[in-house]
Amino acid sequence: MKYRHCIFDLYGTLVDIRTDERSPRLWARMAELYRRNGAACRPEELREGYFRLVRELEGAGLPGQYAHEAHPEIQIEEVFRRLYGERGVEAGEELVRRTGLAFREHSTEYLRLYEGAAELLRLLRARGCGVWLLSNAQSLFTRWELERLGLDGSFDGVYLSSDYGCKKPGPRFFQALLQERGIRPEEAVMIGNDGVCDIQGAKAVGLAAVYIRSNLSPAEPLPDADHVLEELDLRRVGDLLTGDGPA
């Protein structure tokens, strides 16, 4: 193996997804769900409240020593909990969870694996490589989606930004994985589709990096990665990671 550890981004790298969080149909369904649970409101009020609370929580940063984190992350459960609270309902953990999953399901237009994604992960693990997920994502949504896609057992560890209160490209999120798992940066590579979050962030902490331009990549110049693929080809990624193909 060329690398002892392979660290993957998820959305836009292994998984193709399209969501629409402003869909009128979504907010009509969410308003009905809130009404059934004693928190009646109009769809547009709920939508405006949702985006307001997201902005407020993102702007508040994190408590204590990370109050000025450059790339803070929120927990989306708190948004749904506060939306209930603003309407006089004290929502328990299970209600908040069900509400969040309903929101994700109704806002998702499609969710699917890119061709060759599952095979790539199996290949790397069969070769004895550590396979890790490091994603800017909400744990409530993503762990459910990993199960739906059959990927919940495909990684040696799953690191999601909402669990750590910070996100890529901030170094603290990368370092959480490296330090907790005892991984030396020079033995590992980051694979992702975002030139700033995945590639610049990885290089800043000493990781090698493979950039994949996919349909979900930001409109940006090609980054200074160790390997650059100008189109999605996960079989080619496997050759690069294992050293089986040309550099």
Any chance you could write out the topology, listing elements then pairs?
Elements: E1 5-8, E2 15-19, H1 24-36, H2 43-60, H3 76-85, H4 93-107, E3 108-113, H5 117-126, E4 130-135, H6 139-149, E5 157-160, H7 161-164, H8 171-181, E6 188-192, H9 195-204, E7 208-212, E8 227-229, H10 234-242
Parallel strand pairs: 1-4, 1-6, 4-5, 6-7, 7-8
Antiparallel strand pairs: 2-3
Helix pairs in contact: 1-2, 1-4, 2-3, 3-4, 5-10
What's the quick description here?
By secondary structure, this protein is an alpha/beta fold. The chain has 10 helices and 8 strands. Helix 6 links the parallel strand 4 and strand 5.
- The strand line-up of the biggest sheet is 5-4-1-6-7-8
Using DSSP, what is the number of strands?
A: 8
Share of β-strand residues: 15-25%
Could you name the ranges where pLDDT drops below 50 across 5 or more consecutive residues? 62-69
Task: Please report the number of helical segments.
Answer: 10
Largest sheet, in brief, is:
6 strands, parallel
